[in-house]
Amino acid sequence: MLTVISAVVVLGVLIFVHELGHFLLAKWAGVGVTTFSLGFGPRLVGFKKDGTDYRLSAIPLGGFVRMVGEHPGEEIAPQDIPRSFSHKPVLWRLAIVAAGPVSNVIFAFLTYYLLLTAWGLPTMSAQIGEVLEHQPAALAGVLNGDRVVAINGQPVEHWGEIASAVQGSQGQPLQVLLERRGRQVSLAIVPQAQRVKDIFGEEREIFRVGIKASGESFIKSVGVMESLGLALKKTYLAGEIIVLSVVKMVQRKVEMDSLGGPILIAQVAGQAARQGLPTLLDLAALLSVNLAILNLLPIPALDGGHLFFFLVEAVTRRPVSISVREKAQQVGVAILIMLMAFIFYNDIARLVAGGGQ
Fold this sequence. Notes:
The longest helix has about 35 residues, at about 320-355.
């Protein structure tokens, strides 16, 4: 039950934020909005105010904002032309369509900022849990349980600083100060270059000394101003990973069966909820960036497809013909249906294989 509730709440909030972006900018531009819906299909409940039907619909797999004059070739009553989406300048239409993904990015940034200011930054300590045999650290005399205090005279507080120092060494010797059973030990360690595969299966060279973290962690207090920069960095890194994942899938360097849909999201949301609110919020921020980027893909029927046509119009100073847009829309819908079917197949295959526990 927690899995279902967590998924519904997280996805519901993200969809609401996305559609709210479209809605607010459309209102600001003077565009009439006839429907604001969470979900697709038959209307379940809702209310009407100022000409807009705010509704909850039966199929909880998305949402939509329906605007006056939104569809190409749609007949517009003369009195509705001033509030018609299609009669607004192209820059307004670009902004209204882009507002959905932008709202999701802003939501992710604000969520990361809330996490940092309210709960702090979870940080891995500089304690060594395991020293690998025959590796540089072992050969230099490092022992399990040692704590790194400084590297090349620079104080070390957490594991990330150790990793940065090792990678930045480019194989040059590091003077490492350790704390061992209440006393300090100074050792010289020479990082060793190794070829490894990254998360996308591509080989790259990194430097290692052969140590593993103990798993000990602490919460690092983060100031209000520092949190702004860290929240922005976390939002950027989340987007970078998602963009790279899409690119690698197109290049066929990442298997398509790694794609997940509502079932996988529900499983992950349930696991996050069991670990606490901060973990669930962190997942929501990541999914929000994911939703923004996937919506910006240049596929007709997605925001990215509409943005593409409006950009063409802005450059050529004339709109793309209605027939071209309608055909592209049909192709886009077909692509999305096939993609959704494939994603559901992946989700079900995981469940059958035992990934649903």
